[in-house]
Fold these 3 entries.
Entry 1:
Amino acid sequence: MPAFAPSSYAQTNVAKAPMPEKPLVGHVNMQLDCFLANSNVDDLRAIVRTLLATGPAGTTAALTKIARKRIPSTIDKRVKPANTWFTVRKDGLYTSTPALEDTLKAARTLMGVGLGFDSLPILTEIVEVLNTIEFDLEDETMEEDLSRLDSDIAQACQSSREQIASGQIDDRVAARENLEAMKEALEKCRLVHETAEGDFPLEKAEMAVEGKWRI
């Protein structure tokens, strides 16, 4: 942030210094930056949602474009280490931890701005870890998190298909590899965790990866 605000923002008397219709410089003015730095997340979310709903045409596209550039460079900090996603219960079976939900939120952030293929490696690694552990499907915490994972993979696939349709894929080879890795992880997961009754906790995900992908 610059040491001094532009002259049109430096005055405290709004009548003497009306806010310009267009920004004078390519950064946030000091007063608004102070607000952004000190607001809570809920307020910022509400404000952004209102801006997107009521702002001029192109606001959503502009925000999405900026997010697509920003999020990939910071997402690794939000993904928790794989060895923290699950913990062993007293009976030797595994159950999920809050770190898993934090990691799922990171994946949702990517797919939410149209980067579905970028979210797949995160989700695939979770499935791969599931393939190495034993858990109880009647464990309420585990059941809820597996349901979220199932829905998130399905949503990531939908986001990926939209990414294809919009021509937003930079590396088609990597996209294919990400998709194939997810398919393989889900196939193994069914072999490992399908119940005797044929129940499988990631059925929606399995259906979502099937079909033709024109990458």
Note: The longest helix spans residues 140-165.
Entry 2:
Amino acid sequence: MIISSDSFRVHDGHDHQLSLITSVLGASAGLYIHSLLRETLSCSDKAVIILSFTHDKKFYLEGARKMGVDPTNATTQDRFFFVDGLQSLFLNSQRMTTNEPVVPTANGASLRNVSNFITETLTTVTAKLRKNTTVLVVQNPEILLAGCGALSVDLLKEILSWHAIVTSTVLVVNADSSLITRNSTRLEMEHSAFVLTLAHQASTTVSLRMLDTGVAKDVSGIIRVTKNKGCQEMSPGIDFDDEEFLYVVKDSSINMFNRGE
């Protein structure tokens, strides 16, 4: 994943790369994901699978269109697929467009059933894609900690099994301080352990947060990019130093700049 400061650009897809994006209330990762869709779908040999536990397909389609990408065309070329993780968890049904493969449905809100459903779905989709690079974006998998009562170690194991099916994986999780620092309940402890372990596992971590001084008209928040030096040999495409930028969101576009510019 390479990020330039002049614009919110993302290039992902190095073999077996696991990237982590953390966001907080007030600094959403939505536009970041839309930018990733734009960058990935701009390459004809790349495909993307969105597995979301928080948004429906319309959210990603509309966001990609605002970024200048035609998702309908991408779907026609079998380069964009959406998997509704939340629906598979609670409704035992899966809505996919007619040109997408028929996949099994989860049966019951257990981590094993949901993971089996996702694994079979990813296997089916990647077999149909036949692209050199397939990027999996998983948004808010931590919901399974509450929805299934899963342990963080078990959820991490399942995510790594999904990661093995595709070329690279981008995980998007919430990392508000109240979720990370409080350890008074089982869910708080599992959430904290999940995010912190992911940060150690990921080759790159991108953290979005608000300004320490509060809301500003000309600055939307802070983005920090951290490279896991222990993964550098396994991911030689990661060629940037740890950096921190300010960013501003205007008219569905994001610009990044250094402090003082």
Note: Residues 130 and 203 are 25 Å apart (CA to CA).
Entry 3:
Amino acid sequence: MKIESAEILLPSKGIAEDVEFWTSAAPGLGFRMDQIYPADDPQVATLSGHGLRLRLDKAATSTGPGTVRLLCSDPDSESEARELTSPSGTRVELVPADVPMLQPPTKHAFIVRRLKDNTPWVVGRAGMRYRDLIPGRLGGAIIASHICIPDAGPVPDNVHYHTVGFQLIHCHAGWVRLVYEDQGEPFILHAGESVIQPPQIRHRVLESSEGLQVGVPAEHLTTLDHAMELPTPHYRPDREWDGQKFVHSRPEGAVWGPWRVPGFEARDTGIGDGTKGVAAVRVVRPATREEQAVCVTSHDSDILFTFVLSGTCALHGEGQDSQILSEGDAYTMPPGYKTCLTDPSKDLSLLEVSLPAVFNTTVHPQDKLPI
């Protein structure tokens, strides 16, 4: 066992308020934030300053004489997650310095989240507002958040990275100005465009308006990198992070083709290639020259998430009442579950995210509505 660093554990009643107290110019305590988890509804944050590391934790109870956490590399079976107590009662926790990211098994469910249901907006990292699009997050396998910054303009963000398997930003409305490690100068992501953020790529949100973000797994660690300055001096478009490349997908010049469901067409964003099959993202619309017929389908993808970008349609789920969907609504469909889309408006546009990128769709011509 080798102890790498130490931190003081402090209970927190509100992460945002406590971070503001320790890091703001007033009262000027001189700490800075290093990590926060998870981004959309923070429960833990680590700060550093004056040679001291603080861990603010909403789950921590009253610490009495105090708790010192010693972060260890190469822990042995006896010291891993071990607790000691000093003669004066101070608790000493010996914990692994690096906790591996675990992808929990997906708890499949048919879920529909509608904008008119008035899901609460939660203040998350960098003051951004998050609306959860998947209640329960399929057992922790995925998070999909509608992100909004009420006052458009500069974002109080820092250079940071995420310990995450797959992460997408799709600009639903307005624009967002971003900068990424080894990807050149800052650029504006316009409405209708998408980027994927490979695991641990350093980046920063500079200015923003309304957007949509999807990440896997549901709860992941965000780490601030105070040493790196963006943009970096090198442009390396072919660089990989954990086997994934940075992808910036634009609708201009996109090639449309048949979607997996008859009566619709889709454009691929190239994200399947950029992630080497981890995930795929498609934009879907009604086929202009095809008559819309009732078509019941199912699929075998582990995770299949859809967000309504514009327009309206009716969603029919097996054993469920039909629901009219409109802009801002979202749904997930478990594998093997039969669904059907009907009555699409001419301006209907869907954003479909699948994990993995390649999966099978089965058409059930014998099934009629209701399913």
Note: The first helix runs from residue 15 to 23.
